[in-house]
Amino acid sequence: MAQGPLGITLKGVGKRHGRQWILRGMNLELEPGTIFAVLGSNGSGKSSLVRIMCGFDRASEGTVTWRRGAGDLTAMEVPLAVAYCAPDQGLIPHLDVSEHIALHHRLRRPISGLDLDTTLTLARLEDKGRVRVGDLSSGMRQRLALALAFSTACGAVFLDEPTSHLDQSGISWYAELVHTWLQGRTLVVASNHDPREYPGSTARCELTSG
């Protein structure tokens, strides 16, 4: 694997939207290779915290430090060192599945051993390569998004409610995906208390609404 696992430290982190504080006083220490669950009900700030941790959003207060190996990463470097998947993630509906995978792998280098065909197989979409992404079922789109995240050469994978739209077979597929393809990377999962979404978690935090 090209990139070592990411370590993340949060000190006094808060996030405010307008006058409303979504998060306050978050202190976390994630060692590289941790499987970390961010738990809470809707509106508790799970998604905001995950987006801060993966460098997509800036904290309103406090500091976030990312480290890989012996060095730190800047906030500008972090998005290219992580992979992210959320239920509202913007897949490109007019591309077919093979085109989408090929584009993703041009923009984000895949981990060793995962080319177009193996990624189609990984997503269980072997017979859907020429189907438009917009014509897939919601479960198929979620499998595609998750397969793209895990196929990316990166130091950490961030998932927001990853079993959304997955049936029982899809949830079993997701558990195998984590088991086989995490490969020692850091994993952060935002979940509404569904333990099937964070198998093997070694640490967790609980957020409360209001």
Topology of helices and strands:
Layout: E1 7-17, E2 20-30, E3 35-39, H1 46-53, E4 61-68, E5 71-73, E6 82-85, H2 97-107, H3 116-122, H4 138-151, E7 156-160, H5 168-181, E8 186-191, E9 203-206
Parallel strand pairs: 3-8, 3-9, 6-7, 7-8
Antiparallel strand pairs: 1-2, 1-4, 4-5
Helix pairs in contact: 2-3, 4-5
Summarize the structure.
The chain contains 5 helices and 9 strands, in the order βββαβββαααβαββ. The protein is an alpha/beta fold and 210 residues long.
Residues in helix, %: 25-40%
CATH topology grouping: Rossmann fold
What is the SS-derived class?
alpha/beta
The total strand number stands at 9
Strand content: 25-35%
State the end-to-end distance: 41 Å
CATH architecture: 3-Layer(aba) Sandwich
Task: Provide mean pLDDT, rounded.
Answer: 94
Strands of the widest sheet, in order across it, are 6-7-8-3-9
